[in-house]
Amino acid sequence: MLLGALLAGCQMAPGQEEAAPPKDLAPVEAKADGEAQAREWSRKWPSPAPLGRRGPAVAYGGGKFFAVWNDVREGGVYGARVKPDGTLLDPEGIRLNLGDGPVGSGRPGIAFNGTHFFVVWETSDGIDGVRVKPDGTVVGPEFRVIQTDESFGPAAIACSPKLCLVTFTIAGDAETVIFFGRVTKHAEVIADSERTLSPAYNFAGDSAVAWNNSRKEFLVVWSDERGAGAGKEDIYGNRVKENGTILDDVGFPIAMAPGAQLTPDVAWSGRRYHVVWSDNRDGDTDIFGARVHGNGTVEDPDGIPISTAIGEQTVPRLAHHNSKSLVVWDDTRGGPHRVWGARLGEDGDVWDPTGFAISQGDQPQEYLPDVAQGADLFFTAYAGADSFLPFGPNFILGTRVNHHTTVKDIPALPLTQEE
Length: 419
Known about the structure:
The strands form 6 sheets. Strands 1, 2, 3, 4, 25, 26, 27 and 28 form an 8-stranded antiparallel beta sheet that branches. The protein has a 4-stranded antiparallel beta sheet with strand order 5-6-7-8, with no helix packed on it. A 4-stranded antiparallel beta sheet has the order 9-10-11-12, with no helix packed on it. It has 1 helix and 28 strands. The protein is an all-beta fold.
């Protein structure tokens, strides 16, 4: 069923950091190819160049926030821990991928299972991962969720105390399909006879996943064409039990508005799921959301407008605490890319209808955020760069936000070194 090579442009193979070329070289035109962007960056920035690639992912566990990202250095996947008081514990980063093979272009995934962080990432021939203790110790060996040259990221992960569910996309000649794999708390990959969550002969991607401790199941969400064609994607979901049982056949619709609904994320609130996505039903891209009950019932089929500001609002992520979720996104209302946020209440009310700025312009462009909750704080990690190059080298920055929307780190914490 699933044939063909990886989709063109979805794979990138970062190696060691390139040496800066002579300053008299003319700049090259930015391209979608990550290596071309890396060469452009090396002309713009004196040594050392920015270290990260793509955006970071972040989770909380063991009393610490842990941000992970693709990196230009050998190994390709690094991370750094931050204490709730803002202390950066790993200023040079922790190398997570102990191999030397190429790492893909999608951001890594990270989740905490109660004892360990599980980090997964795309490679040139599958999806790999590793466990990390809260003290920063990388627990080998690495595990391989799936071996194939037709997988691509982003790889997403959520964990119960017993196991983690990893989701990703498989590309065929005329389809992209959402798959999952399961990994035990001991990093043993479980063989699943049925791994498909979305229908065949269809284009689906950008999966995200959350664990529901009340019902002991996962909800996977993704963007799906369902025959409508590019530019008319909708958001679908599918529930999966810990034993691998798929509860919703090939998925149920969460958002089916006009235009495209893309890049969803999901969190469990303790009472229901909160799902957010990018939505261009009104022309410009905005942030919408919906609440979904544990049985799959969508409480807000028309969607909740979370941010409809001027400019483009894209790639939302969210984390939940008590009665509200903090939704963060990439926002161009002021011209440059900045990270903005708003709180979504359990009752569906948007507490910050105009949003609030989280990033403060430490870098000319700031984008691709992720967010986690812990220690009565939210922590947002994001990319920062001289130019907006989503696949190119960038710094990784982070800031703590309290539950009253106060940004506690101005300037932001540099998770990658700048000098």
